[in-house]
Every structure is written in C-alpha cells, then in structure tokens.
Amino acid sequence: MLHVSWWKTTLIWFAVLLSVLLAIPNLLGEHTVSSLPSWWAHRKIGLGLDLRGGSHLLLKIERDDVEKDRLENLVSDIASRLRTVNIAYSGLTGTGRKIELRINDTAQVQAALTALHPLTAGSDKPPVKLSQGANGAMTFDITDEDINSHVSSAVVRSMKVIRDRIAQLGVGEPLIRRQGRDRIVVQVPDLADPQRLKNLLGQPAELSFRLVDQSMTVQAAMDGHPPAGSDVMFSEDDPPVGYLVQRQPILSNVDFADAEAVVNNGGGTVSVKLTPEAGHRFAQTTASNLGRIVVVVLDDQIISTAALKTVIATGEVDIPGDFTAQGSQDLAVMIKSGPLPATLTPVEERTIQPGLGNEAARFGIIACIAAALFVTALMIGFYRLLGVVATISLIINIVMVVAIMGLFGIALTLPGVAAIVLIIGIGLDALVLIYERVREEEKKTHLLVDALRHGFNRAAATVADANLTVLIVAAILFYASSGSVRGFAATLIIGVFTTFFTSCFVTRSLVDMWISHRKPRTLLVGVRSGVFDNANIRFMGIRRFTFTISAALSVATLLAFATVGMHLGIDFAGGSIIEVRAKQGVADPADIQSRLENIIPGDVQVDRLTDRLGAVIRVHAQDGGENAEQSAVTLVREELGKDYDFARVEVVGPAVSGEITTTASFAVLAALIAILIYIWLRFEWQFAVGAIIATLHDVILTLGLFVLSGMEFNMTGIAAILTIVGYSLNDTVVVYDRMRENLKRYSQMPLPILIDASINQTLSRTILTSATTLLALFALYIFGGQVIRSFTFVLLFGVAVGTFSSIYIAAPVLILFKLRPDKFQAGGESNGPAAGDIQSGKPAV
C-alpha cells in the first residue's frame, strides 16, 4: 500500500466526480441541456468566436467628440450663470479646451467669480481652471480630470446603448466589456452580417425633426451669412441637396418613446411614437406651421423631407423616405436604443463566418482525439498496465480542464485547442517523470511499495518545478494578450494545475488501488522504457562543436533578422486580412488583385487558398488612421460583394498594432526575467544563466524560422515563442534537478562526467516526453486545419530545438561558468563512488 489516507482519497475522488458532473453538459445536445437545472446547464463550456463564428470589435470613444460636447456645455453653463446674476459680458468664445470672455464692468468681476465658483473651485476636482487677465478678461481651461471623467461616463452610457441595439438584432448573447480608459470590446457570436453591426454601432443616431427656414435661399445663405439660429444642411442624395434649416429642433431623441419598422414590398418606413408631452407639443407646432417643410436630420445629414399638410395630433409620426427593409429596421433600432454620447470608431475587427468557425471546431476535436490516441499508444507500448493508468489519468485531466473552464466561463478558442493538445504532452511528461523515478527507486530498494512511495514523493518536487515554469510563462501571456490568444493562455494555466493534481494525486490513488487488488511484487515486468538505462553517451565530449554550431546559427539568424526582417502580420504592422469564398467556380487571385489595385491605395496582396475556392487578401496599413482602415475594407466589400462571400475579416488600426507590439515585447522580456529570477532562487546562479542562454537560443532560432519561411509573425507567434520558452525550461529544469541531486552526492566528480551521467539518467524521460509531445503536436498539425497549422509547425520546431538546448546549451554553460560541485557538499555525505560507477548512467546510490 502507498498509505494514502482515506480522507485524502475521498477528497481526490470527490474532486474527480465533481469535475465529471460539471463536464457532463458538454457531452449533451442543446435540447437535453435545456432540460437540466440552470446551475448545471450553465456550466457548459462556451466556444470562442473563432470556433463558433461571429464578430469581435474593439471600439474607441472619440475623445474629440467628448471635448467638443463638454466645451459647448461649459460655454452654455457659464453664460447662464452670468445672465442669472445680471452680469454683462462680451467675447464669450470656446476653442479646443479653452474658453475666453470679458466682464464688461470690472466692478462686477468679484460677483462673476462668485457666480462661477462652482465651476472653478466648487469641488475637489473642479471642471475648469480660471486665469484672470486685465480689464475683466477671464480664461477657463478644461482640466484633464474633467475630460477623463466625461470620457468614462461616455463609455458607460455607450455600453448601455450598444447592448440595447444588439439585443434587437436577434443574435447570440453578446459580450460587452470595457477595456482601458476609452475603449469597449464587443463580441457577438453567430453573427452573419458584421457590416450591419458596424453600421449600427458606428452611428451616434442623433435624430431630430426641424423646420426649413424660408427667410432666404440656400445659395444666399451659403454665399453670405445664414440667419442666426439656422444652418445649411445637405441630404444624402447623389448629388446632395442643400436646405436652410432651423437649428432648434421641434423633436429630438428625448421625445421618442418607441419606434417600429414597417416593411412592405421590399422597402420600409419607420413609425415613431412620441411621449405624451412631445405629442401634445408637436400637435401645436404642426397646427401653427401648416404648409411648411419639415426635414428629418440624422447625425447632421437630412434623410427625408415632408410638407406639413395636416395637424398631427395622434402622437405617432411616420418618417418618410426611400428606405430599404433593413435600413428601416436599423433606423428603428437606433431610435429605440437612443443616441450614443460620442462617436465610436472601430480600431480592431476580427470576424469569422459561423460556417467557417464550425469547420475549425470540427478539425480541433479530430486533432484532440488523434493526439490522445497517438500518445496513449506510445504510453501503453512502453508502460503496459501503468500506461493504461496514465491514459485514465490523462482523460481525467482533460475532463477537469473542461469542467474548470465551464465553471469560470472561459471560452474555448482555436489556440485553446492547441493548449489542450499541449496539456496532453505536459501531463504525460509528468507521468513519465514519476514512472521513471519509481523505476530507479525500485532498483535501489527492490521493494515495490517503498519504490512507489519514494518515487512519487521525490518526483513531485521536480514536476512542480517543471510545471511552474510553464505557469509563469502562461500567466504573462494571459496578461499581455487578448481574444483567442488569451484563451490559449487561460486554458494552459488551468492545465498546469490539473496536470499536477492528476499526476501526483489521482495517478497515485489509481496505483494504490491496483496494488491493493493485484498485490504485484515488481513493477518492471512489462515496462519497456529500460532500453535507455545503459546509455553512456558522452554529451559533453562534443560540447565545443555543438556550442559553436549553435552560436553560428544564432548569429546568422540575428543577421537575417536585421537585414531581411520578418513578415509582420497585421497585429504588429496594422492593415487588414480578408478571406473570401467564390460564390460560383473558383477564386481568381489575378482578377481580385487588378480590381482592388484600382480602388485601394498602397499594397494589396492576394493569395489563393489550397482548395482554390477562396483567396486571402492582405491590405497593408493605410494612411489616415483607423477610419482609413475601415474605409479600405468597405471598398473591398463593395467591389467584390457580388462575386464573393466574406468568410473572415481582420482589421487592426495603427493605435492597436502599436500597443500590441509594445505589449508583446514586454511579455517576452518579462517571461525571461521571471524565469531568470525563479531559476536563480531554486538553483545556483550558474543554473539561471544557463537556462536563460538556452532559452534565448530557442527564441532566436524560432525567430529564424519565421525569417526563413516567410510565415506571418503575429500575436499567435508570440504565443508560440512563449510556449516554447515554457516547455524548453520544463525540460531544462528536469535535467538541472538531477544534476543538483548528483552534485550533492559526488563532490569530487569532474563536472563534465557528472553532467553526462545526469543527462543519461534522465534520457528515457527526455526521449519519451519529447516523443509524446511531438506526436500530440503532429496530430494537431495534420488534423487541426489550415488556420492553426502555422502555429503548430512553430511549436513542433520549438519543442525539438528546446530538447536539444536542454542538453547541449544549458548543460555546457555550467562548465563554462565553472560551477563548483563542492558547493553542494553537505556534512556527513559520502564523497561518492568513482567516476566509472556513475558514468554508466545508473541512478545515484
């Protein structure tokens, strides 16, 4: 028996059963799930937009709009306060964030200051700062704090309006959350028409009814000065028609209680219901203005006109105009939800059609199943019955990952599928560590129960060390990323904890049950990983050669990086990626290229997809900021919409791409520093330097892969690099842990020989875990689909390079920096056997 106490066993299997219970809804159909209690049904894991389809928009509140609105309100407020106390003033003007005026009678300056005190010093954070000049001159500067406060308020109000507008589209439950000071993230699943969503959210929808001013002609008003209280506005006709309209509306948004679209014969109109007070007022206005023309103004543009022929006293008004059915529906939605407090500009867009998302989800499931089958076959082939135990532990591990993701509402993304495949590899890595340690302990004690107890206890520390490096990297990636990449990091973080739990506790409990039932005398019967036990490879004998080759490759990569550079994706360079599918026949990249080059400034690149039915269009970053990027996508839609369906659209504006670049650089640097500190605390400083040099070697060569292959380097590339960092350190820590153990026992052993022995002792673990991880990633590469193939290829390369660097880079650095074995010599310990006894690769005795 392993002497696992009954209460520990109870807690372990309670956690497992609870995980199974929480994961069950994911195996049931929608109809069955709907019949479950809500607390249980809601535990079903959600799919990210890249697997489900839909739109992700990052909207930015236009600060200039908030400043302009705030300036107008403060000018009006100052004028009102001074008029209330009968103080004469002149020259009241506002520009930018500065307001100027002059008090006509200098004797009234103090009274003016008293009247304006609530604005200038009436609170801890007054909205304006007052500067006094000569002869009653005053200057008011709107403070940053006041603008920031109103921007924050505009974000909150905008989120409510956005929610109201999307709710009337009849799509899936949207995710709307604030990001930073002035941005809003909007994710709408199952959305088939992202352009409609952008149109709905991009319009402030300030709607008003105004009377036409007939005191002069429009041309006269444009040539001279329009009458006070009137403006020249234009219709949306082509060419536009000008009207001189009164500035004061007779109806505005606050007067509308409801709106309804009326669709008929392919077109539509909008019927607006007024509030009782507005209905009564509008009846009086129409009665006194019969025969005059009323215009309907939407966001400073006239959308319809009509002559007042009768008194309208019903409280309902039909907006005349030549609307399409969808146009009338959208206008009704905007009227009912109310106006936005400021313009929302899309600075990032990532849209995928629902059908394409379902295809990606299907590929991801197939890849996970294939990866599990591959590694299960390998584990059972080497460990027989213990391989079966490992398979059960692996299944429980994945079930717990799914349960925890559902419990915390973490959506599964396509990179998250890659994280699950990686968790399979990391989980089996931990099990191999434990099994190999148990084999070593059995050789020493020849008692299976003692070997299992010591093996599990001593391997747990190594498993914790190795997994902690992955956890650090995943946590940094989670902080630095967003969207599907953040889903990858979140899944990997959960997997680190479930892997440790299942490897060190569930597996131990399963083995305890097996021993209690079967009472075996030995573990080694049927276990075939011992083929590596007699390895006696002189790894350090060729360290100068491998070190020189690696250094040369690293230098060549850095030179190529500096001269050739990488093909930066839109995450870092800005621009757009648009995937189109031909409605009939196959895609014609040459035709698409020629059509777009005539309408879009800058470079346009078109590549046909492997199935020939679609193409990927890359539009380089446009001059003119975020609006220019959106305009380019709109031009592509207008040009190709008749011949192609838009399967995927990604747009990243210059502001977001710059932030992503800064954040990604910080993430890589922070990961390296965190790992350096951790290794330094756990080992000697030479180990930390060796780990960092090996990690830099892996990062540099992986960057070289991007340079050599020409693959796009985007945020998923950063995710791949950080994952490689974590996995490589996982391997390095295991080797270092064995070196440290041997250093404590053999103080007189030459360091190169001791390092060779340590590597040979962990060789079975290194080969088996690398093989299982590579097999799992290979399954993802083959079956995971085109979208994630590049990401998986980088991980495959990185795992192979990371395994190499753990042996041929991290270890020789210890010799280079003259690590002293006698530092680890504790009192009372033996100086150990001769070199030949340990060089065989047998465990230390």
Folded structure, characterized:
The chain contains 29 helices and 23 strands. It starts with 5 loop residues before the first helix and ends in a 6-residue tail after the last helix. The protein has 845 residues and is α+β, with helices and mostly antiparallel strands. The longest helix has 36 residues, at 483-518. Mean pLDDT is 85; it is low at 826-845.
Quick recap of the structure?
With 845 residues, the chain is α+β, with helices and mostly antiparallel strands.
What's the structural blueprint in terms of helices and strands?
Elements: H1 6-23, H2 30-34, H3 38-41, H4 49-52, E1 54-61, H5 63-84, E2 89-95, E3 98-103, H6 109-115, H7 117-120, E4 128-132, E5 137-142, H8 144-167, E6 175-179, E7 183-189, H9 194-202, E8 207-211, H10 218-223, E9 230-234, E10 242-246, E11 251-252, E12 256-264, E13 267-274, H11 276-288, E14 293-298, E15 301-307, E16 316-324, H12 325-337, E17 344-352, H13 354-383, H14 385-407, H15 414-445, H16 448-480, H17 483-518, H18 543-563, E18 567-568, H19 570-573, E19 575-582, H20 589-597, E20 604-608, E21 614-619, H21 625-640, E22 644-652, H22 654-682, H23 685-709, E23 712-713, H24 715-745, H25 751-761, H26 763-783, H27 789-808, H28 810-816, H29 835-839
Parallel strand pairs: 18-23
Antiparallel strand pairs: 1-7, 1-17, 2-3, 3-5, 4-5, 6-7, 8-11, 8-14, 9-10, 12-13, 13-16, 14-15, 17-22, 19-21, 19-22, 20-21
